[in-house]
Design brief:
Length: 358
Amino acid sequence: MLALLSDEEINFQEINKLSDVAVVSDEINTREELRESFMRYLKLTRPNRRLSDYYSVKLFGCNVSDMFLNMSYRLRFESPIPMKETLFISEPDLYYNKKAFDEGDINLCFVIGYSGSGKSVLTKEYEGDNIEKVSLDDLVCVKDHYTMDELKEMSGLMYSFFAGPGEKFYISREERDVFSDHGEIFVNFIKYAWEYASAHKEKRFILEGIWTYMFFKDPSEFNGYAVFMKGTSLVKSKFRRLVREAGNSPVESIDRLLEFGVYAIDSTLRDGNVDKWRRYFEKDPKTVIKPEDNAFTVLHTNTMNEINNINDRFVHGDERGIMSIMDNVKVNEEMDLTEKTVIVEECKRALADLKLLQ
C-alpha cells in the first residue's frame, strides 16, 4: 500500500519532499512554476496522482487539477476574458479573506458586484443574532423608509450612524439636494463602519452594494476586511435588474427612479471599477475563487466531491468503501446519467489501481 503522512504531518513542505507526489501550491508566483508543478503531477502514475489529489484536498480543499485552474486564473496579468467580452461572459465569484471572516478574525465584509448581479447569494450562509447585514441602498432617502426607532431595532450600525455623525443624512427625498455630492453619504457611512466594526468585535457586519466600488477608487483600502465579489457579467446583471424591477408596481418603479435616478450616471460611468477591484483581489492568496452556480458547475462540484471521496478510500486501501460508493451511485435517483457514469467508471479505475498495489 501507499505510505501516508499522518494528518499532523500534512503540510506543503513535507509533501514537497516526496518524490512520488506532486501538488500545486497556492504560493506559486509565476506561470512557469505553475506549469512545472502541474507537469510533475501529470507524469506520475495514476495511483500516485490519486495520492497527490488526496493531499491537495487536505491542504487546499480541491484536487490538483482544480488547483491548477484556480492558480491559472489568479496568475493572469489581466482578465482571462477579453475586456469587451466581460460585458457578456460571467467570471468566477471571488471571496477575499473569507476564512478570516468565517473564523471571526475579521468582522466586516463588503459584498460588491454589478447592480442586479445577485450579490446577496454570496452571504446567504451568514445568519444569526451576531450577524448584521446592511444594504447600502437603504442609505438613500432613508427617512422615507425607516423611523429612527425602526433603525434602532433593525441595525445598530445604521442607527448609530444616523443618530451621530451621519445625522445630516437622515433625510427624505423632498429634503435632498440633488446637486450635492452623490457619494458623500456612502463614503462617510463606510468609513464609519470601519470604526464601528472595530469597536464591536462581538458581531460580524456585512455591507452589500455597488456604492463601495463606485466611490472608493483604491481597493487596497479594504485589505483589512473581507471582500466578496459577484462575477455575473454586466449584461446579465442588467437583465436581472430589469426583470426584478418589472415586478414592481408603477408607483414603486417611479419611487425608485426618483430616489436613485441621480446616481444613474455615476453607476454607468463607474461600472468599470468592478473590473479594477476584481483584478486587484483575484491574485491574492487569501482569495477563494468559485464559479457562479449553474447546472454545469453544480455537476462538476458534485462529481469532484465523489471523486475526492473515492481517492480518500483508495489511499487508505478501502476496497469496500469504493464499492459502496459505486453501489450507492447506481441507485441514486437524484444524479443524472452523466454524473453516475463518470463516478462509476472512476470507482472501477480505482479498484483496478488498488489491485496493482497489492
